[in-house]
Specification:
The chain contains four helices and no strands. The longest helix has 14 residues. The two termini are 29 Å apart. The chain has a domain of 49 residues. By secondary structure, it is mainly α. Helix 1 runs antiparallel to helix 2, helix 1 crosses helix 3 and helix 2 packs across helix 3. Helices cover 59% and strands 0% of the residues.
Length: 78
């Protein structure tokens, strides 16, 4: 069982808080919340790690950097 799935299942069955699980497993609260969201949205399959690189266009990269510099998005949102 993957760590991600273990954390999500403990959250569901034990009612543990994301910050407690994050501290216990040495991950960020944002990561744990993201795993929970992915599991709720698409199930176990979405917790699997990707082994491929995503390619982003230069325009998209520039747009994201501009949004960040303008204060429109946080690093987590990006």
């Amino acid at each position: 069982m993957s760590i991600k799935l273990e954390v999500v299942l403990r959250y569901q069955t034990e009612g543990r808080f994301a910050d407690q699980l994050a501290k216990e497993y040495g991950n960020s609260k944002a990561s744990v919340r993201d795993w929970m969201r992915k599991h709720q949205t698409n199930g176990i399959e979405d917790l699997n790690e990707s082994h491929t690189w995503k390619k982003y266009s230069s325009d998209l990269k520039k747009s994201v950097v501009e949004d960040y510099l303008d204060g429109n998005r946080s690093t987590n949102a990006i």
